[in-house]
Each structure stands twice: as C-alpha cells, then as structure tokens.
Design the sequence.
C-alpha cells in the first residue's frame, strides 16, 4: 500500500516545526521538513509573539513538502490576535508572559466572583489566561478593542491566513476561560461583566472539520491546542492511566468523558480543557522544563554552555533532597535569571542554598518530580479514578533522569514516548478525517506497539516518601 501523506504544523513556545507524516496502513512515520525558532520580541513596553515571522516559516515548510493530502496546525493556547473590520491584524499579539496582567485577576473578581468564574468555565486560575489578558487591556484603557472586529486564538489566526476562514477551534476556545461547558458555547455573561465585546467572537468548530484549502490542499482542524493533539498520541490501551505532556510546560492530567467542575476541583485549582472527539482533559498546568531552559540560558550568557545531557549528568551526580522549590511560584513565570531566583526562593523559605550549578539543577528536577506526585494525587482525589501508570509524552520524554525521578516520586511505572507526540496527534486527527484510521483507539493501539517507548519502574520509593513532607510544607 502506498503511503498517505499529511502535513502537521506544530508550533511550540520556543520552536516550530513542519512535519511530513506518512501512513502506510500499519505505521505512521514522521519526518521533519522545516524547523525554526519561535523567538518572542521584547519592545520597550511589552513582550509579543512574532506571528509574521512564524507565518513566513510556516509557508516555507509547506512549500518544501513534496506531497500532502491535507494540512493541520496546532499551537499553544490562551493567547489571541485582534483583527480589524477588513480582516487585517491590528497589532502583534501579546505573549502570555507579558506582565501587563498583574492584578488583572483581582480586577475581574470585583466584577464576577472567582467561584462563579470557575463554575462557568472549569478553568484553572492563571494570570496568563485570555480572560485576564483582555481584562488588563480594558482596565488599562487600551484602544485595541475599540478598533477590533474579531478575535482569533494564535492557532486560529494561522488557520485564517491559510484558508480565509475565521473560526475558533474547540480545544483552543476552552483554554481562554471564556468558554462555558454547560452551554457548549462562549460565556457571554462573563464577557459582559468584564466589558469584553461579544461581537469579537467567531464560531466554535470541532476538531476534524475541514475549514478550507491552502494552495489546493485541504486544511483539517486537529485538536489545535498542542496539548489536545499530544493527548491523542498517548500510547495507552488501558483506562487507568494518566498523561504528562512534558515540554516548556508540564501538563499532567486524565482523559474523561465530561468536565469535573466541583468544589474539590475548584479548591485544587484544576482545569477542564476540551479534547479531541468530545473528551475532556482534567489537568493542571505546571511550570515544567521552562525552569531548566531558563537556567541553561542564564548560564550560557555567563559563558557556561551546558548541553541538556550535561545538565542531566550534573543533576544525577548531585546529592538529592538538599532543597526544594514550588515550581509554580509566581517568581518563576517571567523570563529571568532562573538560578538566582531558585537560590532566592530557597533562602526565603529557610532552606539550604544550592550554591553550585549542579545543586540548582538537581533542586529543579527533584521539585518537578514531587510536584507531579502532588498534582497526580489531586487528580485522583477529585476524579475518583485510579491511576496505575503514567505516560510521559513530548520532548521531556527524552529526559531519562526526570522520568526515573517521576516514577520514584509517584510510585508508579512511567512509559516515555512518543517524543513528537503533538505532531503525531495532529497527524492522527487528519488521518481519521481522511478515513485512513478508524479512530483514536486504533491509533493508540498502533502507537503502543512501537519499539521506541521507554519504561521506568519505581525504585527507592521509601527515600522519596521520607522527604515528601518537606516539599508539601512549601505548598501550604
């Protein structure tokens, strides 16, 4: 059987890639066509995404593809672009790490109570959510909304440029804290309370839809939120498993038939994001390998150009459990001198200071593993679902040390891979829409038989248990 080719465009927070996915009826083979950096631009007043550069790179990648039955694009969530009445981009979209949202959550809760916002959306409270980004603009008197005719997520902006279709893909819509699962639509009451014009909204479209053509090729919506696509590629054939999409962010969660918008979910600050095929992802966003990347960048600027392999070796050689950080402490969110912030956090919390580079990176790794355990316990308590194993997917699946630490900390087997989970899930959604695959279950059974998955069994669990209380004390 000749292979069917689709193009999977995968945009991450630090890089993008255009991939060729070839399916011969039995195996899915991904190959990289074009990879490019995603470098935010800091102006004197704000941090922006360089969407014009990203669009240029996307078109280069598509042009370099030899053949394709369809194109699909996935991207990060929460951010948005504003278009004028002629469909032109009004301004470079803000980056979710831009500090203009400071105080915006409290500003919103003065207009609609925090508990009601959660009851309407089921979304984790994070200052980077689109709700608070928009609220910050209204609070600060930005003129952009006065001139805007429509609002698109970043993924939907590129889909619009590909096809001319102004829509909002379902999984992306659910990340914005503007979507109401009970209504199955935008929550216009939240928008009215905050002052967000509802005329900006576009129709919500489910994954799997064909929304137009680019240079004669069908554009099919995968789960356009990158985590939504990644979860499609979890190689699990069993019900009692959790997933960890590990990259710049760590997204740890369960796949469920319906959202859980309960008091317990609210207290745990969990999120309910839409998934492919009408499923829901009960999860929590954790700071993730951003901490490692920022440490590496700081050391690199100081002339110490550690590779990721060197950082892992340093962490492995260092004495464990010297000190811990709360990975989601607000001080770690902005681009920064991360080693200095780790040291400062440890001093502020009365812990020994990790003065050596190896001790700093070991502190980050151990703290991430403990945070994964903590969040997994929350997910189990809130959902009532047992978890027998954890699937780690995405770029972080290559980090054998962190994978082993996670198995040790959680006391559960870890299965790592696929690394290119997001592009794989993107391609699977296209192949299902084209009739080449029968559904997600069939695709996952195929992936589970791949020979590139790595397995990590828990070990030294007693020692990890002994220090867990020290980590928990930081979260109180």
Sequence:
């Amino acid at each position: 059987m000749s292979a069917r080719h689709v193009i999977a465009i995968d945009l991450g927070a630090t890089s993008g890639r255009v991939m060729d996915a070839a399916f011969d009826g039995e195996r899915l083979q991904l190959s990289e066509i074009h990879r490019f950096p995603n470098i935010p631009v800091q102006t004197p007043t704000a941090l922006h995404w360089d969407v014009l550069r990203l669009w240029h790179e996307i078109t280069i990648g598509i042009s370099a593809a030899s053949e394709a039955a369809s194109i699909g694009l996935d991207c990060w969530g929460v951010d948005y672009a504003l278009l004028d009445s002629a469909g032109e981009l009004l301004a470079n979209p803000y980056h979710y790490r831009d500090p203009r949202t400071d105080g915006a959550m409290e500003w919103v809760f003065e207009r609609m109570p925090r508990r009601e916002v959660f009851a309407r959306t089921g979304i984790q409270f994070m200052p980077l959510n689109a709700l608070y980004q928009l609220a910050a603009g209204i609070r600060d008197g930005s003129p952009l909304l006065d001139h805007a005719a429509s609002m698109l997520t970043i993924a939907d902006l590129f889909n619009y440029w590909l096809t001319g279709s102004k829509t909002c893909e379902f999984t992306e819509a659910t990340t914005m804290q503007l979507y109401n699962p009970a209504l199955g639509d935008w929550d216009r009451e939240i928008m009215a309370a905050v002052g967000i014009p509802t005329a900006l909204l576009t129709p919500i479209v489910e994954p799997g839809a064909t929304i137009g053509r680019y240079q004669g090729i069908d554009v099919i919506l995968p789960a356009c939120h990158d985590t939504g696509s990644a979860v499609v590629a979890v190689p699990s054939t069993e019900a009692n498993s959790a997933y960890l999409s590990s990259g710049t962010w760590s997204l740890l969660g369960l796949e469920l038939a319906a959202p859980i918008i309960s008091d317990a979910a609210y207290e745990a600050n969990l999120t309910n994001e839409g998934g492919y095929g009408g499923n829901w992802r009960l999860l929590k966003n954790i700071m993730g390998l951003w901490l490692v990347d920022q440490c590496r960048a700081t050391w690199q600027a100081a002339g110490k150009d550690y590779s990721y392999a060197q950082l892992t070796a340093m962490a492995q050689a260092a004495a464990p459990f010297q000190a811990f950080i709360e990975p989601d402490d607000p001080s770690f969110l902005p681009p920064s001198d991360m080693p200095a912030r780790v040291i400062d956090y440890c001093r502020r919390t009365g812990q020994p200071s990790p003065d050596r580079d190896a001790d700093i990176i070991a502190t980050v790794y151990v703290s991430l593993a403990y945070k994964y355990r903590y969040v997994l316990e929350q997910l189990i308590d809130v959902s009532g679902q047992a978890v027998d194993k954890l699937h780690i997917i995405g770029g972080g699946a290559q980090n054998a040390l962190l994978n082993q630490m996670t198995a040790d900390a959680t006391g559960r087997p870890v299965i790592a891979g696929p690394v290119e989970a997001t592009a794989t899930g993107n391609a699977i959604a296209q192949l299902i829409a084209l009739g080449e695959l029968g559904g997600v279950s069939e695709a996952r059974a195929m992936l589970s038989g791949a020979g590139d998955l790595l397995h990590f069994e828990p070990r030294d669990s007693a020692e990890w248990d002994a220090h867990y209380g020290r980590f928990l004390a930081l979260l109180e």
Observations:
- Residues 112 and 305 are 48 Å apart (CA to CA).
- The mean pLDDT is 97.
